[in-house]
Write a structure and sequence with these properties.
The chain has 2 domains: 151 residues, SPOUT methyltransferase, trefoil knot domain (Alpha/beta knot, 3-Layer(aba) Sandwich); 56 residues, tRNA(m1g37)methyltransferase, domain 2 (Trp Operon Repressor, Chain A). 31% of the residues lie in helices and 19% in strands. It is built from 7 helices and 9 strands, in the order E-H-E-E-E-H-E-H-E-H-E-H-E-E-H-H. The model has no long low-confidence stretch (mean pLDDT 96). The protein binds S-adenosyl-L-homocysteine. The site of S-adenosyl-L-homocysteine has 18 residues, from strand 5.
Amino acid sequence: MRIDIITCLPRLLESPFGDSILKRAQEKNLVTVKVHDLREYSTNKHRTTDDYAFGGGAGMVMMIEPIDRCISALKAERNYDEIIYMSPDGELLSQSIANQLSLKQNLILLCGHYKGVDERVRQHLVTREISIGDYVLSGGELAAAVLADSVIRLLPGVLNDETSALSDSFQDGLIAPPVYTRPAEYKGWNVPEVLLSGHQAKIEEWKQEQSLKRTQERRPDLL
Ligand code: SAH
């Protein structure tokens, strides 16, 4: 899989992809993540990518031309399955959207900033719009990193234990069961006996019960 991220602030995307699971996924060539600086596609001498809003009002608007030039340059190299604009009024990101996107080959994620992008970008250049929640961020970079993380960890080989992603919350419509590690007793707080029993069938049954209980308590809407 390849993910191209378009931004006017590329530095904001350095650390999310520079560590841990997302870094190793790239080292193992399971995913290629490329960050593109919009300023390099600007045609004016100050390399600006935003301008005042027509009709007035507070806040700058990201111009269509650098975005179009950047997307066109990428599309000339390969076909993209989706060109996604990160936007608070887009479809709400869910595990099922992450699952769906993890089956794609090439994705573009476009990050807005300021008041967002010129509406014509949304009308003519992008194929999909995704929000990470009902709140407003100052830019699309963190949202793009969230989306990319949720997708990349699903790619085969990214997590050490292949089945790990399948046992996470939301994958089977349930919340994940609680997890424990050593020591088995800490300040008198004990790990549930069954987990130490070595009886795999009983352990699985316990996990299933716990998942169901948690879902009922915390997210009855999922049931
Ligand atoms: N004026 C816009 C908000 C702009 S916020 C509005 O009211 O809808 C600036 C940029 O941050 C957006 O262009 C978008 O790319 C990103 N962004 C903000 N909140 C987001 C969210 N919840 N999900 C995804 N992207 C978001």
